């Protein structure tokens, strides 16, 4: 596999479910990002990890919990989501924080 | 903080040209351009690091006017494959420390190229 991969590609969950999104980058990058993209809205940065440390959390509700076990993997744990959380969740990575970002294909999340 | 893109949408016929602008109210360290096709992830097109720099990618090129804090993306002789939403991402100058702050994306410009 090359580039940035994300699983699952599609996810439907109820408001009481717990699920996790996974991102893996094969580019040897040191920074990883989670973005939320809703219809007709710009990309919203959620979390930034640099060298496995969380360096940014843009006022994201606690029902979203990121985890970065190593520089190649990034997870987004979901718990008790709301219907308005339905969106495309994109993972990206860059060599250094602030550099060119390469995006994964995204996970299309629907919360019922 | 978020860059402003214009126009919001543009419709072209194949072979026509278009210009998409991205402007910031703050001094910029760099400008990144991405294209996102419907249902797909954003794809990196190019990065401009210096004021006045111009870069090209096939028939798509861009300029960066540091003084005006603005970048423009030029699409010439458009092809059907150019359709998509174009985002600019900007990094602001980090004052006397040098370097840049985080990448912030504009709302996007939707480009439609018709036969």
Description:
The complex is a heterodimer of chains A (112) and B (115). Chain A has no helices and eleven strands. Chain A has strands at 4-7, 10-13, 18-25, 31-37, 44-50, 53-57, 64-70, 73-79, 87-94, 102-103, 107-111. In chain A, strands 2, 4, 5, 6, 9, 10 and 11 form a seven-stranded mixed sheet that branches. A four-stranded antiparallel sheet of chain A has the order 1-3-8-7, with no helix packed on it. The termini of chain A are far apart. The model of chain A has no long low-confidence stretch (mean pLDDT 90). By secondary structure, chain B is mostly beta strands. Chain B contains no helices and eleven strands. Chain B has strands at residues 4-6, 9-13, 18-23, 28-36, 43-48, 54-57, 60-65, 70-75, 84-93, 100-105, 109-114. In chain B, strand 7 and strand 8 form a beta hairpin. The mean pLDDT of chain B is 86. The chains are: A mainly beta (112), B mainly beta (115). The A-B interface holds A 41-43, 45, 48, 56, 90, 97-98, 100-106 and B 2, 32, 34, 40-44, 47, 87, 89, 91, 99-108.
Topology:
The complex is a heterodimer of chains A (112) and B (115).
Chain A: E1 4-7, E2 10-13, E3 18-25, E4 31-37, E5 44-50, E6 53-57, E7 64-70, E8 73-79, E9 87-94, E10 102-103, E11 107-111
Parallel strand pairs in A: 2-11
Antiparallel strand pairs in A: 1-3, 3-8, 4-5, 4-9, 5-6, 7-8, 9-10, 9-11
Chain B: E1 4-6, E2 9-13, E3 18-23, E4 28-36, E5 43-48, E6 54-57, E7 60-65, E8 70-75, E9 84-93, E10 100-105, E11 109-114
Parallel strand pairs in B: 2-11
Antiparallel strand pairs in B: 1-3, 3-8, 4-5, 4-9, 6-7, 7-8, 9-10, 9-11
